[in-house]
Automatic annotation (TrEMBL):
PROSITE patterns: NTF2_DOMAIN, PROTEIN_KINASE_ATP, PROTEIN_KINASE_DOM, PROTEIN_KINASE_ST. This is mitogen-activated protein kinase kinase. Residues 328-450 form the NTF2 domain. Its EC number is 2.7.12.2.
Length: 452
C-alpha cells in the first residue's frame, strides 16, 4: 500500500492495484480503460447514502464525465473476508460486458487514500430492490411476477452458462428494479466461479434464509442452489411473507428447511402453473431442479407472456417525484455549465432552454427573452474565454414550486482560471424551471451573482 494506491491479491495470487485513477493490472495498464474503468474520485459527485452493510456503504452519485447517476459502493478492505468478497464482486463485474440484460453494469473502481477505502462505481437502479417494492405493495401479483421472473431467468442463465458462476445470494434484496420495469441482479460479493458446468462448490456462504438444502447440509452444490433461492423468493413476494419461521434462529430455520415440506403458494389463490414452477425450483434434490434456461420454457412463464400487464406501470409504486426532480436539476446544472464553458460556439445549444418570457439577471444586468439572454451569455462566454475562466459546480440544491412541476434550482460554484495567482471566485446562480410537459422544462427566471 502506498499513499495513492492499494494492492490486493486475488485467490490465484494475481495482484490488483487500486489507484486514485482506477484499477491497474500487473503491467501498470488500466483495466478496460477504453470502456470507462479509468475513473477517479473527482469524476463522481456523492449525493446521498442509499444503504449500509457490515463493511460497506452505498451512496447515490453523479458520474460527471458520463452525465449519469451511479451507485458508489465504498468498501473497507482491511479484513481478509471483505477483500475476498470485493474481488469476487469485481471479477463478476469486470468479466461481464456492460448492458447485459438483468445484470447491474460496472463502471470502475478507485482507491480513496484519505479513508483507505475502495470505491466501486455501479449502475444506479432507480426503483430500489424487490424487497423495497414488496414492502410498499405487500404482495406482488402473479402475472407481474411471471414477467419479472422471465427476465431474472435470462440473467441467471447468462451467469450460469456463460460465466460459470453461482451467485449464492439470490434474494429480493439483491434483485433491483428500474422504474422502467427491468430487474437487475446485484451483489456478487460471495459468488463462486467454477471451471465447468460440472464442477461443484464446497463453501458455506450466503444468506441462510434463502439457502438450499444441499448447502445447509454442507454438501457440494452448483447452479441449482440459485434456483432454490429464486423459488423461495417467489413464494415470499407472492404471499407477502417469508414462508418459514425465521424468528427461532438460524439453526432451527435450517432444520425446518431440511425436514418440512417445501412451501408452495396456496392453492386457490394462485394458478397451478405458478405452484408447479415453484415446486420444481424447491425440489430438495438439486439434480431434479431445472436449469434457468429450461425454466424459461415452463407454462408459468408462457402463460403470461402476452399478458397486457406492464412492469413499467407496476413500478410506478416506487416512483419518487422529488428524487426525479433532484436528478433533473443536477443534470441540468452540469450540462448548462458544460455548454457555457465550451465557448461562444455552443451558445446556440442553450437557446432551447429559454422562451420569449424568460428573464435573466446577471450580476446587475437584465435581459428578457431568448434572443437577449443568449446575446448576454455570448458576451459572458467570450469574456471568460479570453481569460480562460470556467464555471465549476460545487453544489446543486432543488426544491419544488407549487404543484405544476416547476422547480427552484440553486447552484453554488466558483469561477476558476489556470492563471497563476488567480483565486477561484465563488458565485451563486438561481434558476426557476417551469415544466412544459412531464420531464420537459424551460428556464423561466435566472439570476447570477458573484460572491465578493
Amino acid at each position: 500500500m502506498s499513499d495513492d494506491s492499494l494492492t490486493v491479491l486475488t485467490q490465484s495470487h494475481n495482484p490488483v492495484s487500486f489507484t486514485t485513477e482506477g484499477m491497474k493490472k500487473r503491467d501498470g495498464s488500466y483495466y478496460k480503460a477504453g470502456a470507462g474503468l479509468h475513473i477517479s474520485e473527482k469524476d463522481i459527485r456523492i449525493l446521498k447514502k442509499l444503504g449500509q452493510g457490515a463493511s460497506s456503504i452505498v451512496h447515490k452519485g453523479f458520474y460527471i464525465r458520463e452525465n449519469k447517476f451511479v451507485a458508489v459502493k465504498k468498501i473497507n478492505v482491511f479484513e481478509r473476508e471483505t477483500r475476498h468478497q470485493m474481488l469476487n464482486d469485481l471479477k463478476a463485474l469486470c468479466d461481464a460486458p456492460n448492458n447485459v440484460p438483468g445484470l447491474v453494469s460496472f463502471y470502475g473502481a478507485y482507491h480513496v487514500p484519505e479513508s483507505g477505502q475502495i470505491s466501486i462505481v455501479l449502475e444506479y437502479v432507480d426503483g430500489g430492490s424487490l424487497a423495497d417494492v414488496q414492502a410498499k405493495v405487500g404482495k406482488i401479483p402473479e402475472n407481474v411476477l411471471s414477467k419479472m421472473t422471465a427476465k431474472m431467468l435470462r440473467a441467471l442463465a447468462y451467469l450460469h452458462r456463460e460465466k460459470h458462476m453461482v451467485h449464492r445470494d439470490i434474494k429480493p434484496a439483491n434483485i433491483l428494479m428500474t422504474i422502467g420495469g427491468e430487474p437487475k441482479i446485484t451483489d456478487f460479493g460471495i459468488s463462486a466461479f467454477i471451471d465447468s458446468t460440472l464442477a461443484q462448490c464446497n463453501t458455506f456462504l450466503g444468506t441462510v434464509t434463502y439457502m438450499s438444502p444441499e448447502r445447509i447440509n454442507n454438501h457440494q452444490y452448483s447452479f441449482p442452489a440459485d434456483i432454490w433461492s429464486l423459488g423461495l423468493a417467489l413464494v415470499e413476494m407472492s404471499t407477502g411473507k417469508y414462508p418459514y419461521d425465521a424468528s427461532l434462529g438460524p439453526l432451527q430455520l435450517m432444520i425446518l428447511v431440511l425436514q418440512e415440506d417445501v412451501p408452495l403458494p396456496p392453492a386457490g389463490e394462485f394458478s397451478e402453473e405458478f405452484r408447479d414452477f415453484v415446486r420444481l425450483c424447491l425440489h430438495k434434490d438439486p439434480h431434479r431442479r431445472p436449469m434457468a434456461d429450461q425454466l424459461l420454457e415452463h407454462a408459468f412463464i408462457k402463460k403470461y407472456a402476452n399478458d397486457p400487464v406492464s412492469l413499467k406501470s407496476f413500478m410506478q409504486c416506487a416512483f419518487n417525484p422529488h428524487d426525479k426532480l433532484d436528478e433533473i436539476a443536477l443534470v441540468f446544472a452540469y450540462n448548462y455549465y458544460a455548454l457555457l464553458n465550451a465557448g461562444t460556439q455552443r451558445m446556440k445549444d442553450l437557446a432551447p432552454l429559454y422562451s420569449k418570457q424568460s428573464t435573466l439577471r446577471y450580476d446587475g444586468d437584465a435581459a428578457t427573452g431568448r434572443d437577449a439572454i443568449i446575446a448576454k451569455l455570448q458576451g459572458v462566454a467570450q469574456m471568460h474565454a479570453g481569460f480562460k475562466v470556467a464555471h465549476e459546480v460545487v453544489d446543486v440544491q432543488c426544491q419544488p414550486l407549487g404543484f405544476d412541476g416547476s422547480a427552484l434550482v440553486n447552484v453554488t460554484g466558483q469561477l476558476v482560471s489556470p492563471a497563476a495567482g488567480n483565486k477561484p471566485q465563488p458565485f451563486t446562480e438561481v434558476f426557476v424551471l417551469s415544466q412544459i410537459q412531464a420531464g420537459e422544462y424551460y428556464v423561466a427566471n435566472q439570476c447570477f451573482r458573484l460572491i465578493k
